[in-house]
Amino acid sequence: MAAVPNDLLTVVPRGARPWLPGVLGLAVVAVLLGAFFYAESEWEVGVLLAIAAALGLAAPRVPLLASAETAWRARPRLFAWLALLAALGLIGLFREEHLALLMLATALFHIAACMGLNVQFGYCGVVNFAGAAFFGIGCYTAAMLAGHAALPTALIFVLGGACAALIGCVLLVPVLRTRGHYAALVTLAFGVLFRSFMEVNDTFGGPQGVKLPDMTLFGWALAMPPEWFGLDWSFYVNYALLGLALVAGLFVLLSRLERSWIGLALDVVRLDETAAATFGVQLTRWKIFAFVLGNFLMGVAGAMYAVMIAFVAPSSFTLGDSLILVSIVVLGGVGNQWGLLPAVVIVMLVPEKLQFIQEYRFLLYGLLVIAILLFKPDGLLPRRLRRYGTEEAA
Amino acid sequence: MDIAQLGQYVVNGMMLGIIYAMVAVGFTLFFGVLDVIKFSHGDVLMLGAFTGYAVYLGLGALGIEASWLQLALVVIASVLAMAGVGALIARFVVLPLRGAPAFNTLLITLMTGMVLRECVRLFFPAGSNPKPFPRLLPDTQWAFDGFALRLDSVLLFAAGCAAIAGVHLLINHTRLGLAIRAVAQDSETARVMGIGFESIVLLTFALGSGLAALAGVMNGLYYNEINFGMGLLLAVIGFSAAIVGGLGSIYGAILGGFLFAALQTLGAVALPFGSAYKDVFAFAVVILIIAIKPTGLIAERSSERV
Question: How many CB pairs under 8 A join A and B?
Fold first, then answer.
């Protein structure tokens, strides 16, 4: 940040090639991520984490790295496409690795769910401590519909989101009428309620959970290994691509939403309700919009996740899981969609890789979040001000 | 349902109520002085119970057998230790985040709770198994027409009431309480008047955490079992109780605690599906109450209104 004195006045010098350091930076990130999935032994993972941490700490001070960030900010659309290509490249590289692809797909579906949370309290400031419950509603909807009704899979995904949004509407009255800690309690209580309801209810499988059949999306058999380009693929590649498509689609949708007058209205509601109301911004309308949209996104992500793991049980939707989703958002930087990427790697993937700390992982991860909140409270990638009037505004 | 069963439900409900109320009073104290929710409160309670258990084992090893002495030492050690832990959490986790969004404080204390929980699970000998908490109270029973009232329940209930009454007296009738109320009302002015802000905050956190430790030991004495995960649900319930009653008010916390226990008992007794849905029922009613009275049953005196 020190190298970029003022966000609004950053000028990219004419004639320079601002994209070159950006491409290099992206390549470094992709290589690190690839090496991370490839790494087998724990010390390899440790070395990679050390490198990533060193790069992250050095980034604001080393001119080359800082200019990579400037380049990303100057051409966000170009680099979003490049990032998508890099992700496709990673999926292609690990096409036969079940575990790596499963981890990648899990991470992607959780990123999508966190995007929903980001809309809620990143943009509009509506707290939600029941993320795992809404994710779970999507999962259970998919499980019930897939087991008992012959609906197209795409419709099941949408209905998963719709159910989450609809059930979330029950909470609208208390959420809208309360503020701060009182609103936090409403969602917290709902999360606990959802989990205990699913545990004691026989209709939805009870504590043993429900299995899902194999699904086909528009003729694309999701649970079969594909036969593209005459190569061997793991069937998880389907889900990784599905997750990537979801995240990429949401990314486009949400960054446009953020830049639009809707995003501005949501920001005003978050930052100062009184000022917003004074200027004729309808608080109720935008809070409902953000809460329902966020729950919908979590439900869709949950439905897709359930189809992937083909098994849903209440023990995956505890308060702890809701906290994991919230931690990902806070670690990444509230309101910044890009921040979800490093955060999801730290919170969900690193413990999977470091089996020797498996026993201690909740302890270490709790300490890590405490340290981040104490020393870097804006998250790893803090949200920046919008920049209108650049090439991207056209 | 016969009268014996009903009596049993009422006694159970009262015990739950007093424990919830003690947890909720802690939440309300912290909220009063610092406008924060310290979610590690439930895990401090759990740690208090484990400290008490460890002290009991230590006393057994030293050959001290008198159960009243054991009880006194267990309670004193656990309350003092948790008062210290509470002050440490306030000093190193909660106070540094002053000025950050309330949400960050909520999250950091949730994580602190998780760290405490994990520490007990990993580092207490066989910490992941439930531990049998000793029966240190006399096991006299009075039988009324098929329903047995245990003396220890009565003693525990009285102890809980006395602790809450003690906190209430301390807050309302001592110089320290005056300072706490001053900080709660307007910390800037309190500072100008020469009140040491930080020491009052630390003392308040020590007070609330000591109360939680007592609640933890009481919980152990009543159920004769403690486990590392008992704090989380108690924290959620205590928080609900404090919110439903109205944050910042001790009476609200007591009311909320007993209300939640009553809802759980009612859910267990009256619902057609049996006791499985008692938590679902209690939390659903809590959400409903919040929807109807968004500032809790006893509202803060100066709520932010536009």
Answer: 123
Query: Cβ B233–A192 below 8 Å, yes or no?
Result: yes
Question: CA A193, CA B280: separation in Å to the nearest integer?
Answer: 5
Residue-number span of the structural domain to which A347 is assigned? 97-393
Interface of A with B in 373-392 (CB under 8 A): 373-374, 377
Read off the tokens for A13: 């010098």
Judgement on whether residues A117 and A63 belong to the same structural domain of the protein: no
B37 touches chain A (CB under 8 A): yes
User: What secondary structure does DSSP assign to B242-273, as a single string?
Assistant: HHHH-TT-HHHHHHHHHHHHHHHHHHHHHSTT
Note down pLDDT in tens along chain A; length 394 residues. Answer: 344 444 444 455 554 556 777 777 777 777 777 777 777 777 777 788 788 777 777 776 777 666 776 777 677 777 778 888 888 888 777 777 777 888 888 899 999 999 999 999 888 888 888 889 999 999 998 888 887 777 787 888 899 899 999 998 988 888 888 777 778 888 888 888 888 888 887 777 777 778 777 777 776 766 677 777 767 777 787 888 888 889 989 988 988 888 888 888 888 888 888 888 888 888 888 989 999 999 999 999 999 898 888 888 888 888 878 888 888 888 888 888 888 888 888 887 777 777 666 677 778 778 888 888 888 877 777 777 776 655 443 3
Q: Is the ipTM of this complex over 0.85?
A: no
> Closest by alpha carbon to A337, among A239, A246, A242?
A246
Tell me if A92 is assigned to some domain: no
Give SS3 for A211. Answer: strand
Helix intervals (H) in A59-130: 63-74, 76-93, 98-117
Contacts of A273 in chain B (CB under 8 A): 306
One domain for residues A45 and A102: no
What residues of chain B, 231 to 260, have a C-beta less than 8 Å from chain A?
232-233, 236, 239-240, 243, 247
The enclosing H or E element of B132 equals strand B131-132
Record the pTM.
Answer: 0.84
Is A7 part of a structural domain of the chain? yes
Q: Which residue of B has its CA nearest to A177?
A: B294
What chain B holds in terms of domains, given with CATH numbers, is 6-126+151-292 (1.10.3470)
The answer to whether the CB atoms of B287 and A177 lie below 8 A apart is no
| One domain, residues A54 and A117 | no
Interface of A with B in 297-356 (CB under 8 A): 319-320, 323, 326-327, 330
Q: Are A184 and A306 in the same domain?
A: yes
Number of domains in chain A: 2
Residues A46 and A115 in one domain: no
| Region of B147 on the Ramachandran plot (φ > 0 left; ψ -120 to 50 alpha; else beta) | beta
Same domain, A113 and A232: yes
Please tell me whether residues A178 and A282 are part of one structural domain: yes
